[in-house]
Amino acid sequence: MAKKTVSESDETRLKKKVAAKLADNKNSKEDDALRSLQKRLRRVQRKRRALALRKKNSASQKTAAPAAK
Questions:
Q1: Domain interval for residue 47
Q2: For residue 28, is it within any domain?
Q3: pLDDT tens digit string along 42-65?
Q4: DSSP readout, 1-69?
Q5: What is the Cα–Cα distance from 16 to 4, expressed in whole angstroms?
Q6: Which residue, 8, 14, 25, 45, is the most exposed by fewest CB within 10 angstroms?
Q7: Distance from CA of residue 66 to its chain's centroid?
Q8: How many separate domains does the chain show?
Q9: pTM summary value
């Protein structure tokens, strides 16, 4: 499997796909493809936010530990 070139992140690519689907879709409630795209987008956003929170928490713990000693 070839490496993907990272010109744009998964999140931006998914946002574009969802926007395009919403633009040309009349009944967005019944579109399964749109729903799965939105689910993938939410999953990627959740992953990004969790990673940012984990980094933030670990950074604060590393700086607090030496100060406590």
A1: 34-62
A2: no
A3: 999 999 999 999 999 988 777 766
A4: -PPPP-SS-HHHHHHHHHHHHHHT-S-TTS-HHHHHHHHHHHHHHHHHHHHHHHHHHHHHHHHHHHHH-
A5: 18
A6: 8
A7: 33
A8: 1
A9: 0.71
Q: How far apart are CA 18 and CA 45, in angstroms?
A: 14
47 found inside a domain: yes
The reported pLDDT for the residue numbered 26 is: 77
Residue 5: predicted pLDDT: 64
**What does the pLDDT look like over 1-18, one tens digit per residue?**
666 666 778 899 999 999
Domain contains 51 = yes
More confident residue, 68 or 4: 4
- The answer to whether position 24 is within a domain reads no
Cα atoms in the 13 Å half-sphere on the side-chain side of 51? 6
What are the structure tokens assigned to 46, written together?
């959740």
